């Protein structure tokens, strides 16, 4: 008995211009968008942080002038509130995205990965919530007794 010859052209190779079939279980573009976010947020963060350091430590008289009154005067302006809020959100999300990548790369068990990801998400939400709350509810009229 001889096996039937199956020529290579009939083994399921599609024609070059055949429409692509979507593979079941194929992942979305989340990782690509995550990678792109890291690059773009990093560029924006460089501008925000260097501007922050330049203004706070060089142009406004140095670090010894930073106190309650300085922050109160600065956050009286919506411009500086938005500047600091943008810096907070981008830094937190940028760092969390990096940690998410590290968790996915180095956690061996699915259960461990799940728990670490939940802890990361909870810490991000807490930090963003408290930071945003402080920036928008800061009361410069409070005095310490």
Q: Care to describe what's here?
A:
This protein has 145 residues and is mostly helical. It has a single domain (31-137), classed as 3 helical TM bundles of succinate and fumarate reductases, CATH 1.20.1300. It is built from four helices and no strands. The chain has helices at 30-59, 68-75, 78-106, 110-137. Helix 1 crosses helix 3. The chain is elongated. The model has no long low-confidence stretch (mean pLDDT 84).
Report the major sheet.
none
Q: So what's the oligomer here?
A: single chain
**How confident overall, as mean pLDDT?**
84
Q: How many helix segments? A: 4
Remind me, CATH topology?
3 helical TM bundles of succinate and fumarate reductases
Instruction: Identify the CATH homologous superfamily.
Output: Fumarate reductase/succinate dehydrogenase, transmembrane subunit
Strand composition percent? under 5%
Query: Which ranges are low-confidence, i.e. pLDDT below 50, for 5 or more consecutive residues?
Result: none
Total domain count: 1
Q: Given this structure, which CATH class is correct? A: Mainly Alpha
Q: What is the H/E order?
A: HHHH
CATH architecture group name: Up-down Bundle
Shape: elongated
Distance between the termini: 100 Å
The secondary-structure class comes to mainly alpha
């Amino acid at each position: 008995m001889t096996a039937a010859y199956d020529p290579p052209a009939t083994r399921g190779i599609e024609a070059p211009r055949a429409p692509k079939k979507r593979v079941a279980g194929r992942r979305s573009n989340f990782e690509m968008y995550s990678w792109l976010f890291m690059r773009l947020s990093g560029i924006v963060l460089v501008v925000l942080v260097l501007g922050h350091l330049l203004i706070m430590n060089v142009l406004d008289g140095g670090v010894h002038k930073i106190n309650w009154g300085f922050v109160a005067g600065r956050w009286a302006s919506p411009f500086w509130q938005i500047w600091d809020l943008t810096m907070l959100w981008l830094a937190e999300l940028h760092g969390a995205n990096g940690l998410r990548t590290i968790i996915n790369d180095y956690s061996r068990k699915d259960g461990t990965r799940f728990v670490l990801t939940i802890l990361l998400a909870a810490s991000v939400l807490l930090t963003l919530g408290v930071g945003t709350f402080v920036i928008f509810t800061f009361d410069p009229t409070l005095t310490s007794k």
